[in-house]
Task: inverse folding
């Protein structure tokens, strides 16, 4: 990955470590900030804020060390993200989550199969349609009739 | 001794009931299936099927879930030998010599030795649980909060030390996991923490949600990233039986692999992958002509395959006797116990003997079933391998989503799992192994409780961890592990072993 912008003087040598450091800093700082709303207590009787603040602080510190070290120790570079599978696989999950309660298992299953299939390398409409119908029959048969899970089958 | 016999009789009487035998068979078959298929592992599968086990008695549920785990070690070798792809991450090393053997037309003996070695190792590993389980549990009954806290620290340090990638990143993952485990209502004060006002988070984030996202979904995305190429080298496996020379060459490797795997399996954070690497290194060191390795040396199949299966059994020891999981899969098994209302810990063995001994007896049966499934029925699995991944992953996704949703009939869980999938994929890209995170996630609340209790006992004096003998021993062990990793020579060796 190229240095970000023209006026960035320091080149990031190990982008993998740099970004993992940033993720740790993000979560560490978030935890410490949120935990300020919880009573700290003392070591003898720890409040709900004590342990999280301690861990959040350590995580932030580790994050800084990892990110800072990435500036002068050379390491591996991040390869670009595969956006296509990422978007469609997670999109299929979200579609299922949003649809399953109100629109029912049948439509949610169809949506999940079609959306997730778009994440692959090849999308053949006929194949995917057959797969979607087969999985739809299976999920209604197995989950609703077989295992008796409380799903809405059709839109409410 | 008679105690042991009685316990084993109890175990077999539980495991041999038709229902439990059926679940053992289902678990072993499913394990082989997902072991054979690349792109889905035991962690994702166990998480996916956990909700389906709610209706089962706890023994049957654990028997099936355990079967999935050790069955995957058998199935993984089939893909490694025939397709040169690790069906399971623990069979990466088997690709080297196993595939070379297949190219020489000796796929049959390679498969047979892998299965027979695994059977031997599985039986020995299970015997070790029988022998060491009860005394360890007895010892653990004497543990109080300080010992538990130190033991968990030791476990997490081991998990970080043995993870791939840099040590400091692995520690970051452990701590992030501990923090995620704290989401939800604090047991002491009743205060909701890190819930961001979302009601459903008051009970915490479900571990199925985290495991499914980090392992299941992230694995699918990352498999889709690599172009699919699965060339079966041999569609028909002829002549399964190894020659006498093969057997002579392998039996030593099988013994050594079993020993390496059994011991390393006990170390928290190690698991089957590291064991198979370690065994391969041992075999190569000991060989008279190390040059044969990578060109179809049967020891290179026999050793690692025995090691990973031995480890798959012995990793159960800390989980069952101490209530502390050593690997991410064991963390899930522990979660399965909790879902079924059994508080994990040393008392499981005394309060639920039918569960403990039934599970162990089922492991022997399961290993036998697996040899039958994997050798005479090899043709079925070869055919399974020809199913393209583009048909499989939408089905896997569907089963996962249904499983997650039915945990509490809440769409939020599915959305959260998708978020963890994103996080898991980013971590794969950044070279951070997610297993320590899951371990930390399960141990987070336990550790906080024990830490608070320990400091309450000592009136806030932290030296309580150093003045109690067992606690001190655990902390010293943890310090030793850390010291060894930072020492430059060992560090280089670690990198060698992990990257070879």
Result:
């Amino acid at each position: 990955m190229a240095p970000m912008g023209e006026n960035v003087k320091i080149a990031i040598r190990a982008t993998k470590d740099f970004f993992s450091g940033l993720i740790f800093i993000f979560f560490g700082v978030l935890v410490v900030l949120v935990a300020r709303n919880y009573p700290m207590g003392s070591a003898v009787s720890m409040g709900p804020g004590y342990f999280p603040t301690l861990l959040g602080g350590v995580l932030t510190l580790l994050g800084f060390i990892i990110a800072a070290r990435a500036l002068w120790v050379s390491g591996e570079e991040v390869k670009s993200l595969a956006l296509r599978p990422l978007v469609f696989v997670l999109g299929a999950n979200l579609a299922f989550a949003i649809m399953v309660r109100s629109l029912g298992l049948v439509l949610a299953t169809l949506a999940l199969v079609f959306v997730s299939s778009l994440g692959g390398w090849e999308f053949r409409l006929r194949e995917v349609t057959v797969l979607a119908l087969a999985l739809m029959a299976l999920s209604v048969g197995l989950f609703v009739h077989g295992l008796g899970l409380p799903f809405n089958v059709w839109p409410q | 001794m008679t105690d042991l016999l009685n316990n084993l009789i109890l175990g077999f009487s539980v495991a041999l009931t038709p229902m439990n035998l059926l679940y053992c068979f289902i678990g072993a078959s499913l394990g082989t299936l997902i072991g054979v298929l690349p792109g889905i592992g035991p962690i994702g599968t166990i998480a996916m099927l956990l909700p389906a086990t709610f209706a089962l008695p706890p023994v049957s549920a654990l028997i099936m879930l355990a079967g999935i785990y050790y069955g995957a070690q058998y199935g993984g070798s089939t893909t490694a030998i025939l397709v040169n792809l690790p069906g399971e991450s623990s069979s990466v090393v088997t690709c080297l010599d196993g595939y070379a053997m297949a190219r020489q037309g000796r796929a049959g003996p390679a498969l047979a030795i892998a299965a027979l070695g695994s059977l031997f190792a599985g039986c020995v590993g299970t015997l070790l649980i029988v022998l060491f389980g009860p005394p360890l549990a007895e010892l653990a009954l004497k543990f109080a909060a300080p010992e538990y806290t130190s033991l968990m620290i030791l476990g997490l340090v081991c998990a970080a030390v043995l993870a791939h990638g840099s040590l400091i990143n692995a520690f970051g993952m452990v701590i992030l996991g501990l923090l995620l485990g704290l989401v939800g209502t604090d047991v002491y004060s009743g205060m909701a923490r890190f819930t961001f006002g979302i009601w459903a988070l008051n009970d915490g984030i479900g571990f199925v949600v985290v495991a499914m996202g980090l392992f299941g979904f992230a694995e699918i995305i990352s498999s889709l990233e690599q172009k699919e190429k699965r060339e079966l080298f041999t569609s028909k496996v002829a002549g399964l039986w190894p020659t006498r020379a093969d057997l002579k060459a392998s039996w030593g490797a099988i013994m050594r692999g079993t020993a390496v795997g059994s011991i390393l399996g006990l170390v928290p954070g190690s698991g089957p992958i590291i064991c198979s690497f370690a065994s391969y290194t041992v075999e190569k060191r000991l060989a008279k002509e190390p040059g044969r390795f990578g060109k179809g040396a049967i020891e290179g199949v026999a050793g690692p395959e025995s090691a990973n299966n031995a480890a798959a059994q012995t990793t159960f020891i800390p989980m069952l006797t101490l209530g502390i999981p050593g690997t991410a899969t064991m963390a899930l098994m522990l979660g399965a116990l909790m879902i079924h209302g059994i508080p994990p810990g040393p008392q499981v063995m005394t309060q639920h003997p039918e569960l403990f001994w039934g599970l162990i007896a089922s492991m022997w049966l399961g290993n036998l079933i697996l040899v039958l499934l994997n050798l005479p029925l090899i043709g079925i699995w070869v055919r399974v391998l020809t199913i393209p991944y583009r048909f499989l992953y939408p089905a896997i996704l569907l089963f996962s989503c249904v499983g997650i949703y039915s945990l509490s009939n809440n769409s939020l869980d599915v959305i959260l799992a998708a978020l963890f999938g994103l996080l898991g994929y980013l971590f794969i890209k950044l070279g951070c192994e997610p297993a320590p995170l899951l371990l930390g996630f399960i141990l987070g609340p336990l550790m906080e409780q024990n830490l608070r209790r320990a400091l309450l006992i000592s009136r806030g004096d932290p030296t309580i961890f150093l003045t109690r003998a067992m606690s001190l021993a655990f902390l010293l062990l943890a310090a030793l592990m850390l010291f060894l990793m930072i020492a430059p020579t060992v560090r280089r060796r670690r990198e060698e072993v992990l990257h070879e």
